[in-house]
Amino acid sequence: MVVKKNIIIGLTIMCLLVGPLSIASAVGAADWPMFQYNLDHTGYLNESSDFTPAAWLFKTGGSILSAPSIADKLMYFGSTDGIFYALNLNDGTQVWDYSTQGNITGSSVVRGDNVYFGSMDSYFYALDKKNGDSVWKYRTGNSIESSPAADNETVYFGSDDQRLYALDLDNGTLKWQFQTQNAVKSSPSVYNGTVFFGSDDGKVYAVNKNGTKLWSYDTGNAVRSSPAIYNGTLYIGTDNGNFYALNTNDGSIKWSYDFNDSVRSSALLDPNDNSLFVGSDNGNITSLDMRDGTLKWSVSVGNVKSTPALMRDDVVVGSDSGTVYVLNKYSGKEDWSYAPGYYLFNSAFSTPIIYGDDIFVGAADGSMYALNYDKKSGPTSVYLYYVSAIVIVVIVGLLAFRSVRGRRKKE
Hints:
Blueprint: H1 2-17, E1 27-28, E2 50-51, E3 56-59, E4 69-71, E5 74-78, E6 83-88, E7 94-99, E8 109-111, E9 114-118, E10 123-128, E11 134-139, E12 149-151, E13 154-158, E14 163-168, E15 174-179, E16 189-191, E17 194-198, E18 203-208, E19 213-218, E20 228-230, E21 233-237, E22 242-247, E23 253-258, E24 268-270, E25 275-279, E26 284-289, E27 295-300, E28 309-311, E29 314-318, E30 324-328, E31 334-338, E32 353-355, E33 358-362, E34 367-372, H2 383-410
Antiparallel strand pairs: 1-2, 3-34, 4-5, 5-6, 6-7, 8-9, 9-10, 10-11, 12-13, 13-14, 14-15, 16-17, 17-18, 18-19, 20-21, 21-22, 22-23, 24-25, 25-26, 26-27, 28-29, 29-30, 30-31, 32-33, 33-34
């Protein structure tokens, strides 16, 4: 009888661990064609079109360290397995893939008929977005970790060879290059005809569209965060722990906020409430007033190198702790969270994006996850089976221990 009771308890525990796959209802959505949605990197989406997705996950052979891009209900992203993927947004099935010779750590940009991205094999690629055929590629002098930005007929991106590049979108010919004093891992933003970006040489640069420097601001340490821009103000974090609001006209400081640790997360801007949201290596996601840097709230979620996304009245952020958090944007209070590693097999999450009623986010475990916002759920993780196996082993061990102890008592 005791044995049967233990088995029932064990099965109950396993059932509690199992989460069903979720199906989203028809919702509004729009394309998300580049890192942080637009050229200003505001990370805010309010246009809509019909979309009916399902919760799913897709496994790659490496880590997914960047946000996907979305166009025409296809998702595009790269992995450290060196492969660039195109998936059907509705169910996560693979449409095509393209192999490079290096890790792919930056996001892509979709423009016209093509999708553009860089690889750590030093090449920048243009592929046909429908079938993955190569359109052109351009070789730089080192790895490319920066995410590109496309404006008019030009695509901009940084390279570890210390340069910012401007290439022709149609044929990949070099228009100009701008030399810094260290690797350019920051992703450029384009605002009012000016390209803004950071460099590992510690400077934030403003360059006009012919490649001439307008101004630079020296932060004193590497700048790997990417600029977010609104209404003449550039918001950017640095490895010296300071987060800056700079005037886009001349680079002068409007205000700064000290996080006391590296800020490689890029800011999410919510101009409707004059709020910005940014993560850091101090283990918190923080909300500041866009106007003067006043602290609104700060919540511990684990180190955050990814960039948050806005979903209605919530902020969605992927943490190095292996959890995706959905927090109230006014208070920072947790609405819900998703941890597919069940806290035993957690791996860092990259930047999430929002499409309709779904949250899409990649992870260092190599998986791309589709989560349902309204149902507060995601796909059943492969780690469930690992956890179930551990539970079974523990239950069997306990039963064996009790059986042996029972025999000894009878003796």
